[in-house]
Design brief:
The protein has 10 helices and 9 strands. The protein is of the alpha+beta class and 297 residues long. A 7-stranded mixed beta sheet has the order 1-2-9-8-7-6-5. A two-stranded antiparallel sheet has the order 3-4. Helix 5 packs antiparallel against helix 6 and helix 8 runs antiparallel to helix 9.
Length: 297
């Protein structure tokens, strides 16, 4: 088990929140000293922050440990730890862990065999809709990313972006039509780019900047995806591929979210303007009545 650990040390909270399954790590606060085994100790089970999908939450909330089932074998303890959302009291998270306690009876090695629901933030419904028939490959990429398989994760994400190029460009075109319909030059470029067979070649054809609402920290998301896809092909190590794969996923999530928000905000603005302008219009005069006569009445 020790051979799988990295040199970085974690707290229990950091390990549960940030380390994907299939990993082991050195833990500084693994147990409260009581005996020789984890079974004789109080395993540190701090409150942790996780994403709760319950309708009452729909965001990051505090979770607390509510149950633990363990099997002790020599100095190793295998256990299931169940956490529950403190806000809604319904959503749970189950971890399958292995613990090895050091001689100091407080530090040790913690392994994560698995967790349910799966590690990482949930994939938004609007992203799944955009992925279409490629969603199965996306989830294979997500599992590969969670397991630290960088080359596999990058290959799956690259396939998703390349094969769903038309859907990505359709989403951007629809957004531009809503928020910047007068930008005919950009719309023409986007339509031409969509006809390219490869995503990276399509992005190369776009010379005009996209609307401000779609920029990510001031950067064009299409250029960011282009860069990640291009650099990842030449990555020298699995770790480098993993970094590029994660970048592709994060940028794709953010792009879809910004397209949705931009369209929503545009529709809300138009509705607000329509209501205000309707209020400003004078009431229509009845037959044979002038506006002055109506005001007198």
């Amino acid at each position: 088990m020790a051979g799988d650990t990295a040199e970085k040390r974690y707290t229990v909270r950091e390990f549960l929140e940030n380390v994907p399954p299939g990993r082991a790590a050195l833990i500084d606060d693994l147990a409260v000293q009581k005996g020789s085994y984890i079974g004789d100790n109080d395993l540190v089970q701090p409150e942790i922050t996780l994403h709760c999908e319950n309708d009452a939450c729909k965001g990051f909330r505090l979770f607390e440990s509510t149950a633990r089932h363990q099997v002790v074998s020599e100095h190793v303890t295998n256990l299931f730890v169940i956490y529950r959302c403190k806000n809604c009291g319904e959503t749970t998270k189950t971890y399958a862990l292995g613990c090895y306690l050091n001689k100091d009876r407080s530090t040790g090695i913690l392994s994560k065999f698995g967790e349910l629901p799966a590690f990482g933030p949930p994939t938004p419904t609007k992203v799944i809709t955009l992925l279409g028939k490629e969603k199965d490959y996306y989830f294979k990429g997500r599992r590969s990313e969670n397991q630290g398989l960088g080359i596999a994760a990058f290959a799956y994400y690259r396939r998703v972006v390349e094969n769903q190029k038309d859907r990505i460009f359709d989403g951007i075109i629809q957004t531009v039509q809503k928020v910047d319909s007068g930008n005919t030059a950009l719309l023409a470029e986007l339509e031409a780019a969509k006809r390219e067979t490869q995503f990276t070649k399509a992005v190369d054809t776009i010379k005009h900047g996209i609307p401000q609402a779609l920029l990510i920290d001031g950067h064009n998301p299409l250029t960011l995806l282009h860069s990640a896809l291009s650099e990842g092909l030449h990555a020298g190590t699995d770790e480098e591929c993993l970094e590029y794969a994660t970048s592709i996923r994060v940028v794709l999530f953010e792009l879809v979210d910004r397209m949705s928000s931009a369209v929503k905000n545009s529709q809300e603005l138009k509705s607000a303007l329509f209501r205000i302008l309707q209020r400003k219009k004078p009431a229509k005069s009845g037959p044979g009545e002038s506006d002055s006569e109506i005001s007198k009445n």
